[in-house]
């Protein structure tokens, strides 16, 4: 009876370059050569969704990691150097950010450390929920938001916040690049002093130690050297001793990043509503103006109609045939609805989003002023003060836009009403008496509208809506650095004059600076830049507190490996949360057998716990009929991963030269490797040499697997991905297209007795 039950098998169209099991559900994420990210279910390996590559994000996925709660999947792209956080429910990017180097490895861990301060912080209701109104849901009817949000609830942007318990996304890249992001969003540390490009990372769950495996290439030498670094990372114990403060600060920063994303999406919706207006104007009015072939301008003709109540024949023909009464009514309605939706977005979304930003920044400033707790983490009150000022300027700009929309709508309505009446008269229809009344004020509105919108502005001819200037609102939504085409008129404004003449108020820190010449987008970008700067400092401060404790050179890679994708190759790192030990798995080729080696180091480098290293050989367990005297070491290890803290899952191949080598999937219990007899055979590490040069002295173990293995028939298995929490594994063939999925613990007939046999 073979152990492990096969639950699915598939041939995939594209080569898989990465796979990662979800920590909480039976889902596996795959990335393939084409740059797609796919999510599959364990049962029959059916596909849940796929996210195709696109220009903005990138095409070359080089790393995958799940958030510990399994709700968000992060992946890194090499070509654009971006990290994308994607919702597990829907293949859409919720958040993305750029990094300075191409990412080669990601690891997302959760802090399990407990303390009374932390527990009270985790349990306390987030005050902002009580004090701030709930952010209004973003409207679904715009293409940008419709893609991201599923129908029922659009507070999905808040999913980014996740659980209060601190989790950290550790990114490793080429040329010694390592960064740690709290909650996957806010950069909490930039680690320096590690050489080579990262092949594996592991941050211990008490934040005391970071292990890194890197590959160092000398230009002269084509073979790369694999080195193991253990930075006893926070040996100033900065992150671990200030854990409550770090968690609080990171939580605030995550709120702020989420709000910035929310404001960005609201602005995108506003721009879409604006495009809608331009399209309406273009389709109806431009044609109308183009067909006019007299010398007088449109503006003059309309003015004439307004003053004398009589239109030239040409204008009359144009209005009646081109625009028509019905068309005019429709145009008026659609423009009005677009205007009011922009107005709603400003009032409900931009303003409530930026007020929430102000609240969180002010709280952050309060933290920064509590110097004994937060100063050593690099929080800087003056930087946060600048950020608050920048948000204030953004709110002012949004208010100014509201006023502009308000006045534009007044003029628009008056103009459409007047033109409607004029056209009814031309067609000699009955005009309702209430439409007929026009006050002096209305006439001024119409005249304003004509001078403003129908003035020939040659510099606008290359833009949309070129025959009339509808830029008054649009100029605020342009994502350009140009100044506003027609900035608001501030002459005679008493407040401005008062400010101008008052020497004390000019420089007052209480007044938010106001940029009359700039667009809303410009002010928003400036706000994002300032906030980014004030979030940058803690990362540098914490990163500089990291010191390298150990550096060991492991082995040289062989040339033959280089064709396989980086992502699967051993070495593999694992952090045992309960006993805080880092394990490293790697293979060293010896007499054409690749032996699996297990290196273990305690995360607390000051402790004198033995950092043992062992080589493991697999005794013959397939065909016992072979003469016992023949050499029983006949398996090479192809891939190995930690299944849980006690077990390693391995893929083995027979090393006997024969046709049809069998591939085997097996579970290797650590208890059968680490026995008490190891104490006398302590390996003395010669730090001047690489490990593979002294492999003869490494204590070695022969293990006979009882029934925890299964032959993989008709499959050239090469790689394995496992998840011990869900008890599943996925085996990938050497051509990277053939996948098999297994449930590992099917029958539980008591403990499997491990028989120890010494060589």
Automatic annotation (TrEMBL):
<dbReference type="InterPro" id="IPR024789">
    <property type="entry name" value="APC4"/>
</dbReference>
<keyword id="KW-0498">Mitosis</keyword>
<dbReference type="InterPro" id="IPR015943">
    <property type="entry name" value="WD40/YVTN_repeat-like_dom_sf"/>
</dbReference>
<dbReference type="GO" id="GO:0070979">
    <property type="term" value="P:protein K11-linked ubiquitination"/>
</dbReference>
<keyword id="KW-0597">Phosphoprotein</keyword>
<keyword id="KW-0131">Cell cycle</keyword>
<protein>
    <recommendedName>
        <fullName>Anaphase-promoting complex subunit 4</fullName>
    </recommendedName>
</protein>
<dbReference type="InterPro" id="IPR024790">
    <property type="entry name" value="APC4_long_dom"/>
</dbReference>
<keyword id="KW-0833">Ubl conjugation pathway</keyword>
<feature type="domain" description="Anaphase-promoting complex subunit 4 C-terminal half WD40">
    <location>
        <begin position="573"/>
        <end position="743"/>
    </location>
</feature>
<keyword id="KW-0539">Nucleus</keyword>
<dbReference type="InterPro" id="IPR017169">
    <property type="entry name" value="APC4_metazoa"/>
</dbReference>
<dbReference type="GO" id="GO:0005680">
    <property type="term" value="C:anaphase-promoting complex"/>
</dbReference>
<feature type="domain" description="Anaphase-promoting complex subunit 4-like WD40">
    <location>
        <begin position="19"/>
        <end position="110"/>
    </location>
</feature>
<dbReference type="Pfam" id="PF23405">
    <property type="entry name" value="WD40_APC4_C-half"/>
</dbReference>
<dbReference type="GO" id="GO:0030071">
    <property type="term" value="P:regulation of mitotic metaphase/anaphase transition"/>
</dbReference>
<keyword id="KW-1017">Isopeptide bond</keyword>
<dbReference type="InterPro" id="IPR024977">
    <property type="entry name" value="Apc4-like_WD40_dom"/>
</dbReference>
<comment type="similarity">
    <text>Belongs to the APC4 family.</text>
</comment>
<dbReference type="GO" id="GO:0031145">
    <property type="term" value="P:anaphase-promoting complex-dependent catabolic process"/>
</dbReference>
<dbReference type="InterPro" id="IPR036322">
    <property type="entry name" value="WD40_repeat_dom_sf"/>
</dbReference>
<dbReference type="Pfam" id="PF12894">
    <property type="entry name" value="ANAPC4_WD40"/>
</dbReference>
<keyword id="KW-0832">Ubl conjugation</keyword>
<comment type="pathway">
    <text>Protein modification; protein ubiquitination.</text>
</comment>
<dbReference type="GO" id="GO:0034399">
    <property type="term" value="C:nuclear periphery"/>
</dbReference>
<dbReference type="Pfam" id="PF12896">
    <property type="entry name" value="ANAPC4"/>
</dbReference>
<comment type="function">
    <text>Component of the anaphase promoting complex/cyclosome (APC/C), a cell cycle-regulated E3 ubiquitin ligase that controls progression through mitosis and the G1 phase of the cell cycle. The APC/C complex acts by mediating ubiquitination and subsequent degradation of target proteins: it mainly mediates the formation of 'Lys-11'-linked polyubiquitin chains and, to a lower extent, the formation of 'Lys-48'- and 'Lys-63'-linked polyubiquitin chains. The APC/C complex catalyzes assembly of branched 'Lys-11'-/'Lys-48'-linked branched ubiquitin chains on target proteins.</text>
</comment>
<feature type="domain" description="Anaphase-promoting complex subunit 4 long">
    <location>
        <begin position="233"/>
        <end position="429"/>
    </location>
</feature>
<dbReference type="InterPro" id="IPR056358">
    <property type="entry name" value="APC4_C"/>
</dbReference>
<keyword id="KW-0132">Cell division</keyword>
<dbReference type="GO" id="GO:0051301">
    <property type="term" value="P:cell division"/>
</dbReference>
